[in-house]
Design goal:
By secondary structure, this protein is of the alpha+beta class. The protein is built from 16 helices and 15 strands.
Length: 550
């Protein structure tokens, strides 16, 4: 039993400590119902209190008027004090009771406190009871009181009666029972209660319709979801290198990110609410909003910078409510595309190959001009053999034309720099490497070889060499590139693949980052082995069944 109580206690503790989550629509409905309820409750209390007092005041005024009329009636004035004329007074009182709703009991009493008229005729001639008649007998005062009479608790109006000579001969008491008053008040309160329920029902329907409308306006989102979207939007805009600017129906700027501010060379970021023509006259967002037709990949110049701009209308159903423009530096897009696809690597390789070829032609031409024909022939044969050796190895083993062209071009580039680039005889690569895209291979090889040449150039080793192995196996492609460059310090090994990180002056630090990104996209692996001032080796393994999404 003790354990049961303990478990129940823990459950209840957890229940009350549990955070209760209410949807926005529920919160609005509850708030509206609370406001309506409090308003109606206060109104009902006020009206009930006011109406209760009003009913009592009306009752008191009614019985006072009836008492005054009877007290001044000639038949009462002339005959009160004469018991023989009592039947006349009783008959008159009975007629009054039948003709009015303001009184239930009418009693006429003389100065000896003896009744001359009463609804219950058996009480005629007997003394008046209640104890609240002393004031009217002693001072001739008219007043209202509450007392218990022979017919129960009553609200009474007392009015003195004077004869024609001006002497008081008695008084008239007109009353209504408290029970009747309560019944009338209860009837009134029931009417108020019905009205209150109707008001609450109308308030509930109104709260539901209002909350539904607000929910619809907010696209069904909860406040925390809106907050999250706002934070995500700001983070996204900050992370974008593209400029973003948006306008509303009045062509006023509603959104602008930091990249747009930098590209537009604005002096302040307080652009919200400004007219778009004042900030960015050539954006043509107003035209796009007017036509409702989107424009993509249009080229134009902003502050002398060539950009590619997209302009899209913002629509709410069929209605255009604004427009948004995104624009990027065209030069940077081109550079990034070349780096990612490997086009730049091939172009650089071909340029280096052409440059080396021209250098050799100039050397041969110089030897001929000097008359050293034999030396020229020997030079041609030597270079032919060297070139043929590399060319034969690459052509025979590397069946992928783009990769073969890249390796040959990089070999020529290495020769220009005085670097001995050796292609391993075990290298093999078919024309079709599964789902590994050519651009991925070119980008990986080009960036790693270029990185190795830069490392060798600034290294302190006497022997400047780069060894390349690219070997296709059944399920993967293996790439090994080793150099005799300056190497990488151990504390820097974890950072070499970060975007923008480089130990070389003037380098953008993009090459290894791109390589890492492509390898991960192919679900491959890349390893680095390096010894400071002795050299580095990069080992890449790419599964052939991988899919490149770069």
């Amino acid at each position: 039993m003790t354990n049961i109580n303990k478990d129940y206690g823990e459950y209840m503790k957890g229940f009350f400590n549990k955070k209760i989550y209410l949807k926005l629509q529920t919160k609005i409905m509850l708030l509206m119902l609370f406001v309506v309820f409090i308003s109606i409750f206060n109104t009902v209390i006020y009206i009930s209190f006011w109406r209760t007092n009003e009913i009592r005041s009306e009752l008191e005024a009614g019985i006072s008027d009836v008492a005054a009329i009877i007290a001044n009636a000639p038949i009462v004035v002339e005959n009160l004090g004469n018991m023989e004329k009592q039947p006349l007074i009783q008959a008159y009182v009975d007629k009054v009771l039948q003709s009015t709703e303001n009184a239930e009991i009418i009693v006429v009493v003389d100065m000896n406190n003896i009744r001359y008229a009463h609804p219950d005729k058996s009480r005629i001639g007997k003394e008046f009871v209640g104890g609240d008649q002393q004031r009217v007998l002693e001072s001739g005062e008219s007043y209202i009181s509450e007392a218990v009479g022979t017919l129960g608790r009553q609200i009474r109006a007392f009015v003195p009666v004077y004869n024609l000579q001006g002497s008081q001969t008695g008084f008239v008491m007109v009353s209504k029972t408290v029970t009747s008053l309560k019944e009338e008040i209860n009837h009134t309160l029931k009417s108020i209660a019905v009205s209150t329920l109707i008001g609450l029902l109308i308030g509930a329907v109104g709260a539901f319709l209002l909350s539904s409308n607000i929910k619809k306006t907010l696209l069904g989102l909860e406040p925390d979801e809106i907050t999250q979207l706002y934070i995500q939007r700001d983070s996204m805009l900050d992370a974008m290198h593209e400029g973003v600017i948006a306008i509303d129906e009045k062509c006023s700027i509603t959104l602008v990110n930091d990249s747009a501010i930098k590209m537009l060379n604005l002096k302040t970021d307080n652009c919200i609410g400004c007219d778009i023509q004042e900030i960015f006259p050539s954006c043509k967002l107003g035209d796009v909003m007017a036509s409702g037709i989107a424009e993509y990949y249009r080229e134009q110049s902003i502050n002398g910078i060539p950009v590619v701009i997209n302009r899209v209308p913002i629509k709410d159903g069929e209605r255009t409510v604004g427009a948004i423009a995104t624009f990027s530096n065209r030069t940077k897009i081109k550079q990034m595309a070349e780096e990612i696809t490997g086009v730049r690597q091939i172009v650089d390789a071909l340029r280096a190959n052409n440059h080396e070829f021209m250098n050799k032609l100039h050397t041969i031409l110089g030897l001929i001009d000097l008359g050293e024909v034999a030396e020229a022939k020997a030079y041609i044969m030597n270079e032919t053999q060297k070139h043929q050796k590399v060319l034969s190895l690459v052509i025979n083993n590397i069946k992928n034309p783009a990769v073969a062209g890249l390796i040959i071009g990089k070999t020529s580039r290495a020769n220009e720099l005085g670097i001995k680039m050796r292609v391993d005889k075990e290298s093999t690569l078919s024309k079709n490497t599964g789902k590994i895209d050519n651009s991925a291979l070119i980008s990986i090889l080009g960036n790693l070889i270029e990185n190795a040449m830069e490392a060798v150039n600034i290294g302190t080793q006497n022997s400047k060499a780069i060894d390349l192995l690219i070997k296709e196996e059944t399920s993967k492609v293996l790439i090994k590139i080793a150099d005799t460059g300056m190497g990488i310090k151990q504390e820097n090994l974890d950072r070499i693949f970060e975007r923008g990180y480089s130990t070389k002056d003037g380098s953008r630090g993009q090459g290894l980052f791109i390589v890492k990104d492509i390898v991960e996209a192919l679900k491959g692996s890349i390893k680095v082995r390096s010894t400071w001032q002795q050299g580095s080796q990069f080992i890449v393994e790419l599964p052939k069944e991988g899919t490149y999404n770069g």
